[in-house]
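Standup notes
- DV: blocked on the single-chain target, sequence here:
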Amino acid sequence: MAERQERTVSDVVMTRIGQGVMLHHAGDREEARTRFLDLWHEIGEDGDPLQRCTLAHYMADTQDDPMDELAWDLRALSAARELTDDGPAGPEAAAAVRALYPSLQLNLAADYARLGRSEAARAHLHQARGAAVALAEDSYGDGVRAAIHRLALRLGESGPGTPGEPGPPRRPE
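- DV (later): unblocked, structure below
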């Protein structure tokens, strides 16, 4: 019974995050940011790592200041690192976050690029490329890989993930 209640609370939180994402995508950035911040205070700095990771990941996108965006992206990555297969959240949460790692690293690379910190940007771009091998061959994976490629071009890079350059082998489906 307690496990079902925890799952229900988690589902409600993730639904509320999704509602904020929809507001943001509909153009109401300020309302999305307000709702995300309220939810962040409810979850707390020590709350469920999957919820914190997801929320911080989307909260970063609503920021106007590049330093604030970086701070939220760093929170997302920090929470993601708490999730392991043998951790309290279990292998399902760890698997969900593994699918986010390329995007988390890519966002950090883009943040650092905007802030003129090209060495940090390249380091996170490299991490994004490495994590991208775990992505499925679907529209999400294709979109993240394309964004990695675009940022690599902006940073003057070539290599794995850049068309015409061999990349790491894809994970078998």
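- Follow-up: Residues 13-154 form a domain with the Serine Threonine Protein Phosphatase 5, Tetratricopeptide repeat fold (CATH 1.25.40.10).
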